[in-house]
């Protein structure tokens, strides 16, 4: 099928943003030539990252680029804040070629068309930010008339055309890279701080390129808010289809994802969700760590889809006889708006559904709960002296003990779920809850008066079961699948619950074989996060792999619990930790970002739910502050601006004292409290 035929067929499909919601199918794109590493759907999804050393440090940049290539990067981006740095890209490129590295280089441009125009003559690709290429940010809301807005677009065209012409002449590729944190005043005034504003920001520039018959373009829609990021990419695909613009390759990324486990989980929630939909042709994972640690994460996310098509066998529709009364008829029927977050409407059952945050159920089916210590990995601590239990912010809500009832009375904040057959034999049936299979549920002589769990899969749904589920207001579903293409199958199940007007809360259950911890985090964050981003899931149960050693199970239990809370936070459905929106740093960074982030984290990580932005420079600073409660932004060499929300409260504090000053601001707001150290694991 030709490209034209592909996008014509997409346009006919209305709200479509992907090829299919029921089987893995990569979105078809045109090919973009970037040096000798082409990008697009005819090629593997590419890995890339960005250097962090000063661009004027030629050898430092070359050596870091080589380390990045060795770690898996297929493109390397280098910042060019001014003409000086743009010019030095030539030296960096030449030295790399001398050393035998042909990796395409990408110049990263903010604010400086003259640097872009020079870089476009020297390297394989230029990234521009449509939010600041032709505009200076003044944080003004302007009421544009149609003609005033058109005059602005004409002004942009005039500023942008020279770069387009140079790229065309030199065969240089371009990324039009929108960033949620740096939308122009013009876009913010007309569209607000929205996914639509992000999309329009890129399209204004893209239309100019197409008018000039320049198509060697990649697009991105990055945000640190995973919901906004996913919605913007999906909306972009829809808008490209609707306007008859070409299906350009997509560069996926979550900005300012942070570091360590949180950064990886957040990246997987955003990037993984889109990869599941078949979107994405290159991935950059942004961690506040050295860039050579980013490529392996990107690669692990991408590799999961290498053979996905062969492995996925999702039920394509409910048109079989068994499901004839159910409503989903083709691979793209969807009862939700994929471009705007709404949580699926559910009724409250105990503390599930309704307005309750999604619950975390820890898997203790293989761990005998015999000593107080056994609950420590999931955030519940026994203090012998006052003889009481306490919990930290990552205290699980339930444990699933299956066939092995706990040997002592659990703390108040923790409830127990047992397999129904074992529950039926318990003396205390009131404070424990049964998990039924469908067969057991249908013949059960006794059920709990207020809360019963029912294991369900997509294939189980039929008219009789739908009626039973609707009639029982004590039920919480536990939804599972063995399908490798798990997220779409479970999403399809949720679609069907909506179509059948079932408002029963549902817990997402996932079980993986004994994966390396890093893959487990990424895969579970993709599968559960993708559902949560679409508004699905009233709880998570991550089952442990089958293991024989209790010590090993306990260790895993701690990391699984932390991952579950991390996923809920990354999908913005339950805040249980301090949120750090920290940029990955680059050649523009004005202070030691990794060290500073670690220092701020050490001092503030007990402030549950507080969001702190840490930005190496002003480029994404103020915009990202829209999403943060407090901000720490580099404004000059070792000079820091401190923000409360979007407002600067201290303009230029020396880096030596800036963390203390930040804490003073938090204290002034009454948000500060002293950490309690005895709850640390
Ligand atoms: S916010 Fe961070 S990564 Fe982005 S340009 Fe500034 S220093 Fe570089």
UniProtKB/TrEMBL annotation:
Pathway: Isoprenoid biosynthesis; isopentenyl diphosphate biosynthesis via DXP pathway; isopentenyl diphosphate from 1-deoxy-D-xylulose 5-phosphate: step 5/6. Binds 1 [4Fe-4S] cluster. Its EC number is 1.17.7.3. [4Fe-4S] cluster binds at residues 583, 586, 617, 624. Its cofactor is [4Fe-4S] cluster. InterPro entries: Dihydropteroate_synth-like_sf, IspG_atypical, IspG_bac-typ, IspG_C, IspG_TIM, NO2/SO3_Rdtase_4Fe4S_sf. Gene3D superfamilies: Dihydropteroate synthase-like (3.20.20.20), Sulfite Reductase Hemoprotein, domain 1 (3.30.413.10). Keywords: 4Fe-4S, Iron, Iron-sulfur, Isoprene biosynthesis, Metal-binding, Oxidoreductase. Converts 2C-methyl-D-erythritol 2,4-cyclodiphosphate (ME-2,4cPP) into 1-hydroxy-2-methyl-2-(E)-butenyl 4-diphosphate. This is 4-hydroxy-3-methylbut-2-en-1-yl diphosphate synthase (flavodoxin). It comes from Arcicella rigui.
């Amino acid at each position: 099928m030709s490209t034209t035929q592909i996008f014509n067929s997409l346009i006919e499909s209305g709200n479509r943003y992907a090829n299919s919601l029921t089987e893995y199918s990569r979105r078809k794109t045109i090919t973009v030539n970037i040096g000798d590493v082409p990008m697009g759907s005819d090629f593997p999804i590419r890995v890339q990252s960005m250097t962090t050393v000063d661009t004027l440090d030629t050898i430092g940049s070359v050596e870091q680029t080589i380390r990045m290539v060795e770690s898996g990067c297929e493109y390397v981006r280098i910042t060019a804040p001014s003409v000086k740095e743009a010019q030095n890209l030539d030296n960096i490129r030449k030295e790399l070629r001398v050393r035998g590295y042909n990796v395409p280089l990408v110049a990263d441009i903010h604010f400086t068309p003259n640097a872009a125009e020079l870089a476009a003559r020297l390297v394989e690709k230029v990234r521009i930010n449509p939010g600041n290429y032709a505009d200076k940010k003044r944080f003004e809301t302007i009421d544009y008339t149609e003609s005033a807005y058109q005059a602005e677009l004409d002004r942009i065209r005039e500023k942008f055309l020279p770069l387009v012409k140079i790229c065309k002449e030199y065969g240089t590729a371009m990324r039009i890279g929108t960033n949620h944190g740096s939308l122009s005043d013009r876009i913010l005034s007309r569209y607000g701080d929205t996914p639509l504003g992000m999309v329009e920001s890129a399209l204004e520039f893209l239309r100019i390129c197409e008018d000039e018959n320049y198509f060697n373009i990649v697009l991105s829609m990055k945000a640190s808010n995973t919901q906004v990021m996913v919605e913007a990419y999906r909306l972009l695909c829809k808008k490209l289809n609707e306007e008859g613009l070409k299906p350009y390759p997509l560069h996926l990324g979550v900005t300012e994802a942070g570091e360590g486990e949180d950064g990886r989980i957040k990246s997987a929630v955003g990037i993984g969700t889109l990869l599941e939909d078949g979107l994405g042709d290159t991935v950059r994972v942004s961690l506040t760590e050295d860039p050579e640690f980013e490529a392996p994460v990107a690669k692990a996310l991408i590799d999961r889809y290498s053979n996905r098509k062969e492995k996925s066998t999702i039920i394509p529709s409910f048109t079989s006889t068994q499901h004839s009364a159910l409503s989903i008829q083709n691979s793209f029927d969807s009862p939700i708006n994929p471009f705007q977050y709404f949580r699926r409407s559910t009724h409250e059952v105990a503390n599930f559904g309704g307005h309750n945050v999604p619950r975390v159920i820890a898997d203790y089916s293989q761990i005998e709960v015999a000593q107080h210590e056994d609950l420590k990995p999931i955030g519940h601590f026994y203090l012998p002296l006052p003889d009481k239990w306490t919990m930290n912010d990552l205290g699980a809500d339930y444990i699933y003990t299956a066939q092995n009832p706990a040997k002592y009375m659990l703390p108040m904040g923790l409830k127990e779920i047992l397999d129904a057959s074992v529950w039926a034999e318990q003396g205390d049936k009131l404070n424990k809850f049964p998990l039924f299979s469908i067969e057991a549920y249908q013949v059960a002589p006794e059920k709990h008066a207020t809360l019963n769990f029912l294991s369900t899969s997509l294939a189980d749904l039929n008219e009789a079961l739908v009626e039973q589920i609707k009639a029982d207001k004590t039920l919480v579903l536990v939804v599972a699948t063995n399908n490798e293409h798990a997220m779409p199958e479970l999403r399809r199940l949720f679609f069907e619950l909506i179509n059948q007007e079932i408002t029963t809360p549902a817990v997402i259950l996932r079980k993986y074989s004994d994966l390396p911890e890093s893959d487990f985090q990424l895969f579970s964050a993709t599968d559960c996060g993708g559902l949560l981003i679409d508004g699905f899931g009233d709880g998570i149960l991550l089952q442990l792999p089958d293991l024989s050693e209790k010590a090993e199970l306990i260790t895993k239990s701690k990391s699984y619990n932390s991952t579950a809370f991390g996923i809920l936070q990354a999908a913005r459905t339950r805040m249980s930790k301090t949120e750090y929106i920290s940029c990955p740093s680059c050649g523009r960074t004005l202070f030691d970002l990794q060290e500073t982030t670690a220092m701020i984290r050490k001092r503030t990580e007990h402030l549950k739910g507080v969001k702190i932005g840490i930005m190496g420079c002003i480029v994404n600073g103020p915009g990202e502050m829209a999403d943060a409660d407090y901000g720490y932004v580099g404004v000059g060499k070792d000079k820091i601006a401190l923000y409360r929300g979007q407002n600067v409260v201290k303009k230029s504090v020396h880096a030596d004292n800036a963390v203390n000053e930040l804490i003073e601001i938090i204290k002034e707001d009454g948000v500060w409290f002293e950490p309690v150290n005895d709850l640390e694991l």
